[in-house]
Design goal:
The chain has 200 residues and is an alpha+beta fold. 53% of the residues lie in helices and 26% in strands. The protein is built from 4 helices and 5 strands; from the N terminus they run ααβααββββ. It has a 5-stranded antiparallel sheet. Strand 3 and strand 4 form a beta hairpin. The chain is rod-shaped and about 120 Å long. Its main location: membrane. Keywords: Membrane, Transmembrane, Transmembrane helix.
Length: 200
């Protein structure tokens, strides 16, 4: 036979301090106040966050547009500068006079750059000089028009219509050839120089 003992004292008295007994409602109130303050802060900060995000987007868009405008301005400047340089270069490079070939070739080389300059020198020396000297050739190049095929700030491809009039001891009358020339111009420092040329 067993006896269960009730360890709960029915006469026990709550000896908790009055303030402790009443702490729960105060804590709840404090919690409610803190939550309310937090909610208020959230209500006050989200417009700021949205505004900051909007400003960031606007600034990024403005920067992108500014960059595109800058590049567009550089390309337009390149088109203008390279077209003028191509016109001048074509008249010099595609013309010569057998009586002063060295001077003509020197003027031409000053307008060329890169590998094309070396190729021009080789061609002028090995082909043009002997033929021009033998035939007393004088070639005058006249650029009729220039258009731009493509352009970047540092390279412009142009298309030129060039009339080359040749006089020589092989023909009684001057002969004029109507040529189309594709000329690539490259920016070197503050100058536009010919980096490639091809007859079409």
């Amino acid at each position: 036979m067993s006896v269960e003992t009730n360890v709960t004292d029915p006469n026990a008295v709550d000896v908790s301090p009055p303030e402790q007994a009443g702490a729960q409602p105060g804590a709840e109130a404090a919690g409610t106040t803190a939550a309310s303050a937090k909610a208020t802060r959230r209500r006050r900060t989200w417009p700021v966050a949205v505004l900051a995000g909007t400003v960031a987007v606007v600034l990024a868009a403005t920067a992108a547009l500014g960059y595109r405008a800058k590049v567009a301005g550089e390309v337009e400047s390149a088109r203008t500068g390279a077209s003028g340089a191509a016109r001048t270069a074509a008249q010099v490079v595609l013309g010569y006079d057998y009586r002063h070939l060295d001077a003509d070739f020197g003027r031409s080389r000053a307008l060329l750059t890169g590998d094309f300059r070396d190729k021009y020198t080789q061609t002028a020396t090995s082909l043009v000089r002997p033929t021009a000297t033998q035939t007393h050739a004088v070639v005058v190049a006249e650029v009729r028009s220039v258009s731009v095929v493509s352009a970047t700030p540092d390279q412009v491809v142009t298309l030129l219509y060039v009339n080359q009039t040749t006089t020589s001891n092989r023909a009684a009358e001057p002969r004029t050839d109507l040529n189309r020339v594709r000329m690539t111009m490259r920016r070197v420092g503050d100058r536009w120089l010919v980096s490639g040329m091809k007859g079409l």
